Amino acid sequence: MAVDEERLLRRTARGDREAFDELYRRTAPWLAVRLRRRCADEDLVAEVMQDTYLAVWRAAGAFVGAAGGGSAVGWLWTIAARRLVDAFRRRARLEQVPPAAAASPTVPGAEDEALARTIGDDLGDALLALPAELRQVLQAMVLDGLSVRETSLLLGVPEGTVKTRARRARIALREALS
């Protein structure tokens, strides 16, 4: 019987290297895909992956789990998203423009479709109908829990643009659902 990610994380917190290895095998492919959708720089994605799993190894005991309302993979993604934003900040300090998030096709991706199915028919359809740039902002701010500034760095657009897109997305969703 397969051990779920939360249990693997708890074992990792106790220093179980085999549990950490299994957690990595289960989550790294998925995490790399999500990071690549937000960053086209493979070297940066590899750096963020390494930083993320190092942080998981060191801080696995801080995971609250289902009792705190979070999942293990959600906790892992939060760490990775924050590490990606930190990497963009480092680049900005070096006066380099962070690589723009990988261009989203006009057709919603598999991740967007899976999210829409999870949320429900009406809201899911409304999300899929949004232009890609509005969906990206909602995903970063609402699902990934990033601030306006972090979303700005992640997407490579000004903070004002993030705020405008978030507002446009909320209005479009409200109209689609009324």
Automatic annotation (TrEMBL):
<keyword id="KW-0812">Transmembrane</keyword>
<keyword id="KW-0731">Sigma factor</keyword>
<dbReference type="Pfam" id="PF08281">
    <property type="entry name" value="Sigma70_r4_2"/>
</dbReference>
<dbReference type="InterPro" id="IPR013325">
    <property type="entry name" value="RNA_pol_sigma_r2"/>
</dbReference>
<keyword id="KW-0472">Membrane</keyword>
<feature type="domain" description="RNA polymerase sigma factor 70 region 4 type 2">
    <location>
        <begin position="122"/>
        <end position="173"/>
    </location>
</feature>
<dbReference type="Pfam" id="PF04542">
    <property type="entry name" value="Sigma70_r2"/>
</dbReference>
<keyword id="KW-1133">Transmembrane helix</keyword>
<dbReference type="InterPro" id="IPR039425">
    <property type="entry name" value="RNA_pol_sigma-70-like"/>
</dbReference>
<feature type="domain" description="RNA polymerase sigma-70 region 2">
    <location>
        <begin position="23"/>
        <end position="93"/>
    </location>
</feature>
<comment type="similarity">
    <text>Belongs to the sigma-70 factor family. ECF subfamily.</text>
</comment>
<feature type="transmembrane region" description="Helical">
    <location>
        <begin position="59"/>
        <end position="81"/>
    </location>
</feature>
<keyword id="KW-0805">Transcription regulation</keyword>
<dbReference type="InterPro" id="IPR007627">
    <property type="entry name" value="RNA_pol_sigma70_r2"/>
</dbReference>
<dbReference type="InterPro" id="IPR036388">
    <property type="entry name" value="WH-like_DNA-bd_sf"/>
</dbReference>
<dbReference type="InterPro" id="IPR013324">
    <property type="entry name" value="RNA_pol_sigma_r3/r4-like"/>
</dbReference>
<dbReference type="InterPro" id="IPR014284">
    <property type="entry name" value="RNA_pol_sigma-70_dom"/>
</dbReference>
<keyword id="KW-0804">Transcription</keyword>
<protein>
    <submittedName>
        <fullName>RNA polymerase sigma factor</fullName>
    </submittedName>
</protein>
<dbReference type="InterPro" id="IPR013249">
    <property type="entry name" value="RNA_pol_sigma70_r4_t2"/>
</dbReference>
